[in-house]
Amino acid sequence: MNQPQEPGSNQPQEDIALPVRWPGSPLQTVVRYLDQLSVAGIVLTMAGMTIIVTLQVVWRHILNSSIDSADELSRLLFVWAMFLAIPQGIKYGVHVGIDLLVSALSPSVKEILFRLMSLAAAVLMAAVAIAAWDATLGKWQALMPTLPISAAVFYIAVLVCAVHSVLHLILFTWGGSRIWGGQSL
């Protein structure tokens, strides 16, 4: 963690360690648990996708056959891995952003702007969650072509991502940019 700035120091002001707000709040505890589940899900889906694609290559090149559902299942696992990873990117601030104008602002104005943008993003992700819920209900009866499961599982990934992201953005709106104590990947 960064040390407090001393008078006369040339250290940039935004590097000052800010206290973590809401340490151990119930919402932060729930989100931390969801983050752990999400990371486990990412690992499992990526491992499953790797195994399926490897088996498909072996089947095609060595056994001159094919696994009918390999393409569809690997695509499904890829979609789940990506949508489980999005809230992690929000938490650690690793998504692409343009900060040309923001970098010229004072730290206090940056923090206010960060909270306002977190609120706006939370509202947008809530709209995505509602749309994903509607899409899930609309596709529930449709089955995937090669798997005996609902095609809605693709939309459930979007729904899970949106709800998880909203929780992170609510924490950022109320607790500020240092809610996670400066944790990084």
In short:
The protein is mainly α. It has helices spanning 26-61, 70-92, 107-139, 153-175. The longest helix is centred in the N-terminal third of the chain and has 36 residues, at 26-61.
What is the helix fraction of residues, given as a range? 55-70%
β-strand number: 0
**Biggest sheet character:** none
Structural class: mainly alpha
- Elements, N to C (H/E): HHHH
C-alpha termini separation: 15 Å
Radius of gyration: 21 Å
Describe the structure.
With 185 residues, the protein is an all-alpha fold. It contains four helices and no strands. Mean pLDDT is 87; it is low at 1-18. The protein has helices at residues 26-61, 70-92, 107-139, 153-175. Helix content is 62%, strand content 0%. α1 (26-61) runs antiparallel to α2 (70-92). It starts with 25 loop residues before the first helix and ends in a 10-residue tail after the last helix.
Itemize the secondary structure elements and their pairings.
Layout: H1 26-61, H2 70-92, H3 107-139, H4 153-175
Helix pairs in contact: 1-2, 1-4, 2-4, 3-4
Supply the key terms.
185 residues, mainly alpha, 4 helices, elongated
